[in-house]
Amino acid sequence: MCGIVGYVGNKKAVDVLLEGLTSLEYRGYDSSGIAVNIDGKVQLFKAAGKLQNLKNIVEKNYAEISKSTIGIGHIRWATHGAPTVENAHPHSCNCGKVAVVHNGIIENFKELRERLEKNGCTFRSQTDTETIAHLVATKFGEVHNLTEAVRLATKEIEGAYAICVIHQDLPDTIVATRRNAPLVVGLGEGENYVASDVPALIQYTKKAMYLEDNQIVTLTPNSIELIDIDNNPLKQKVETLPWEPVALSKMGYKHFMLKEIHEQPDVVRNVLSGKLRASDEKVLLKEVTLDKEKLRNLNRIQIVACGTSLHAAMVGKYLIEEFCGIPVDVEPSSEYIYRKTITDKNTLVIGVSQSGETADTITAVRQAKSKGSHILIITNRPDSTMAREADSLVPVNAGIEVSVAATKSYIAQLISFYLIAIYMAEVKNSMDLKELADLKHELIILPQKIEKILAHTEDIQRCARKFSGSKDFIFIARGINFPTALEGALKLKEISYINATGYTAGELKHGPIAMLDESMPVLSILMKGKVYDKILSNSEEAKARNARMIALTDSEDEKLKELFENIIEIPEISEILSPALAVVPLQLLAYYIAEFLGKDVDQPRNLAKSVTVE
Ligand code: AGP
């Protein structure tokens, strides 16, 4: 939820910190700060609001601040305490010698705070993080060793955290640790880095070490020492990062979101690559390690996910039930974890997450794992916490997604579900071979159809301009495109703040129809297939209540012009594959409406890219 960067070496630390925070801005952006060591004194610089505010402060004091070759930085998404300067990280102890940045939530912070206050510590913020600063300073006073002080402090802390600490007396040392929040160390020559996520590192190094829970790392320019919480030395596992720095550039697009929408044809090709070679060949999915006999005998599948990933999961349910005849339950992870869920070793549990760091989904998956279920994770981050819980890991290969609103990762998740469902159907022999071959062929040519939509966005832009003044928006669909309606509505509300809702078209008459009048746009997802006529009738019902009708369709039926004020046409596609195409114009519609409204498309208010708190 928050982003952390630490640097120790020979560069101007402030440059590395600010660049790192810029690339982690997707993790939060309501306040930020850095701590550096200037002439033997730890100094904090913090600002509320966007990172630019911190950059402005740094600019004014650059000559001083840039003397430091060590520093830690933080970008915040507020949990405890409003996004003010006082609550911005880093936090410090009373003597000012310790500075701490933290991502996560300290669950026992109230008890710790009370105890520390009794012992004379004065708190300046409402955050849980400040307790860590006081606790580490107290321990340091006892043991005079920063690593040991952090280790002892973490023994008293409950909750989830990734922490970086510096101490004034140790101008070349950073100590970092984690529990249920990500942290990765970047290895350099005469310098070392630590960060919440890879984007902060890739412009400096491709050598990295992912920290595991309860490991503590001590970084100096020329050394990295790793221990566990019981002070046992650990072997370091250094990996080569797959990312390229170019992944973080907008490549000429105005926003990351637009760039990522336009990357989707290649994303589909990437997901299919090596797994689906030809329509007459079987899908290769060695990532699914579940024994084929067990797969044939599965009697239940549960899918857990949040937000956009949940919508992909809903399409996944439809596909698996349709192709394999196995009952599938889909549930928001945040609900799954707080009720008696019936799962066992005969249940396959699928966790879907772009970031692989969503706390609700990680907890849900761990809960199912403890009951013996096989865990299949579909994620864009094979290096994530969730990925490490997987028995079967299906990486979606969408490349790094910077925009807070998920687009290309959604399509990558959808295509992964098509592959998984086809693979299962082939193992179970549960589907007609001709039907399978037709679907595979359509998957292979899907990128060209997406490209066609992306090449002509004029109709969508016109529609966006026309409806950008609307206060509310309704999306309707049925069957496999109901999740598309939900996703279209989610995209619109996330980045334009318009109150948008997706309904199954058949449900409209059971209540929501009461809201319709001449000010309400209703967008019907009207794809040719078995529910086409039904949605058409539901659209007539909405029109009869004076709603402003928009169609998203692959039909060229001239009669639609009488019913719909605007028609967004897309290439013809089978109903079963249509969610992977129909979502693209909806992403564009949301984008252009937000653009016309002058919203902050890539960093919408109140949101963060990965939600690492429950
Ligand atoms: C998508 O546009 C959202 N920003 C959000 O709903 C997101 O999908 C959700 O938080 C789940 O994230 P995850 O896929 O990383 O688990």
Summarize the helices and strands and which ones pair or pack:
Blueprint: E1 3-8, H1 13-23, E2 31-38, E3 41-48, H2 51-60, H3 62-65, E4 70-76, E5 91-92, E6 98-106, H4 109-118, H5 129-143, H6 146-156, E7 159-167, E8 174-179, E9 184-187, E10 192-195, E11 207-210, E12 215-220, E13 223-228, E14 239-240, H7 256-262, H8 264-272, H9 292-297, E15 300-305, H10 307-324, E16 328-332, H11 333-336, E17 347-353, H12 359-370, E18 374-379, E19 392-395, H13 408-428, H14 433-455, H15 458-467, E20 472-477, H16 482-496, E21 499-504, E22 521-526, H17 532-544, E23 548-553, H18 560-563, E24 566-569, H19 579-596
Parallel strand pairs: 15-16, 15-17, 17-18, 18-19, 20-21, 20-22, 22-23, 23-24
Antiparallel strand pairs: 1-4, 1-10, 2-3, 2-4, 5-6, 6-7, 7-8, 8-12, 9-10, 9-11, 11-14, 12-13
Residues 306-309, 353-355, 358, 361, 404-406, 494, 607, 610-611 line the site of 2-deoxy-2-amino glucitol-6-phosphate (AGP).
Explain how this protein is built.
There is one protein chain. The chain has 614 residues and is of the alpha/beta class. The mean pLDDT is 94. It has an eight-stranded antiparallel beta sheet, covered by helices on one side. A six-stranded antiparallel beta sheet has the order 5-6-7-8-12-13. It is 36% helix and 22% strand. Helix 4 (109-118) crosses helix 5 (129-143), helix 8 packs antiparallel against helix 14 (433-455) and helix 14 runs parallel beside helix 19. It folds into three domains: 3-248, Aminohydrolase, N-terminal nucleophile (Ntn) domain (Glutamine Phosphoribosylpyrophosphate, subunit 1, domain 1); 256-452, Rossmann fold (3-Layer(aba) Sandwich), CATH 3.40.50; 458-596, Glucose-6-phosphate isomerase like protein, domain 1 (Rossmann fold, 3-Layer(aba) Sandwich). It is built from 19 helices and 24 strands. Strand 5 and strand 6 (98-106) form a beta hairpin. It binds 2-deoxy-2-amino glucitol-6-phosphate. Residues 306-309, 353-355, 358, 361, 404-406, 494, 607, 610-611 line the site of 2-deoxy-2-amino glucitol-6-phosphate (AGP).
